[in-house]
Design goal:
single chain, alpha/beta, Diaminopimelate Epimerase, Chain A, domain 1, 2 domains, six-stranded parallel sheet, binds guanosine-5'-monophosphate, binds manganese (II) ion
Length: 338
């Protein structure tokens, strides 16, 4: 901690990197920390491997983010010139997507703050707490431990609150530890407009997005009753029919878990020439293990992601055959839900 604090204080140019396709936690953490670094007099820059959804763009800082997939040369130049790099919300450089190569090639000091299991060793100062709700929760702790609470503005606190809100699904999961509410209390004391952030994050969808959700649930949800599992497939054409925008499919995968006894829910989405997969589960059913073993991915026990280069149909078949070995565990977990 002291060493990480020291290196931040000694550095001038600090680059903050969230994971590829940043979610609310990755972006909330990056923007929150960016404002604190600025308040400390640092030249901070957020370099994101890819763009991020509109509903996360409600701060001035979000307009300053360098998107590497659009401005690759500039992103690389800024990273090469950095005194310090801070990795947020990931623990494997592969998750830095198109920035993996340059980041792996540099020996710039780095800090990693993250809450995913199985961290890889690449950062100079790694901070991992897999019991934390979110990276944003860890950042708040870090800021207070460094004694920088005066540098935490209302907008920075709001951004960090957004990450906690999104990674817990509005305090629905990963949010049972009392410590989390101490952190939330500290943020609220910074004049966070909770209702505004809630509405920005959860109530800013287009008509098409809501219809896509309806279509996915009514026409595309397949329930494998004996496996207590459901899945939804969405092809590139179906997404186009609903004028898909980044972020539109966020949350769809959680919905089937509302069914009594449902243990596992999966969304297969055809996008950019491959299948992006989102997994969610309840209890001890390890979707991160399935994502890692079968779909080059990973994540948390109950929320994970992966990818497949097979067709939608073949990807689903691969998933169904992977499930066979988990039938007993699925049965045990569904019993616990009754
Ligand atoms: P989502 O389904 O929201 O895209 O991802 C859920 C969680 O799974 C994320 O918070 C992240 O932790 C993890 N995740 C998603 N995609 C990947 C991936 O390709 N690799 C790894 N290691 N984790 C992923
Ligand atoms: Mn996170």
């Amino acid at each position: 901690m002291e060493q990480a604090k020291d290196i931040i204080l000694r550095s001038e140019k600090i680059v903050v990197v969230p994971h590829t396709n940043p979610d609310g936690d990755a972006m909330g953490a990056s923007i929150g920390l960016y404002y604190v670094l600025q308040a400390l007099g640092k030249k901070a820059t957020i370099v994101s491997p890819t763009d991020f959804p509109e509903y996360l763009k409600w701060t001035d800082a979000s307009k300053e983010v360098i998107i590497a997939e659009w401005e690759n040369a500039k992103a690389k130049r800024i990273i090469r010139n950095a005194d310090l790099i801070v990795y947020l919300d990931f623990n494997d450089l592969k998750r830095a997507g198109i920035l993996d190569e340059i980041l792996s090639s540099l020996s710039t000091p780095s800090i990693m703050i993250d809450h995913h299991p199985y961290p890889k060793e690449f950062a100079t100062y790694p901070f991992t707490d897999i019991s934390a709700s979110s990276t944003c929760e860890l950042i708040v702790d870090f800021i207070y431990q460094c004694g920088w609470d005066n540098q935490l503005s209302s907008i920075a606190a709001s951004s960090l609150f957004m990450g906690i809100l999104t990674d817990t699904g509005g305090f629905a999961h990963n949010s049972s530890k009392p410590d989390l509410y101490r952190v939330v209390g500290m943020l609220m004391a910074k004049n966070v407009d909770k209702d505004y952030i809630y509405s920005k994050v959860f109530h800013q969808f287009s008509k098409d997005r809501l219809r896509l959700m309806g279509y996915a649930l009514s026409e595309k949800m397949v329930v494998l009753d004996s496996f207590h599992t459901s899945y939804i497939t969405l092809s590139e054409k179906e997404l186009a029919d609903f004028k898909f925008q980044s972020g539109d499919t966020e949350g769809i995968v959680n919905e089937p878990l509302q069914i009594t006894g449902m243990v596992c829910s999966v969304l297969f989405m055809e996008k950019d020439g491959f299948i992006k997969i989102s997994f969610r589960s309840k209890g001890n059913f390890p979707v991160n293990e399935i994502a890692e073993k079968f779909f080059s991915g990973g994540g948390h026990l109950n929320a994970a992601g992966g990818r497949s280069n097979l067709s939608l149909e073949e990807t689903v078949k691969r998933f169904e055959s992977a499930l066979v070995d988990y039938k007993e565990l699925l049965m045990e977990e569904t019993q616990k839900l009754k």
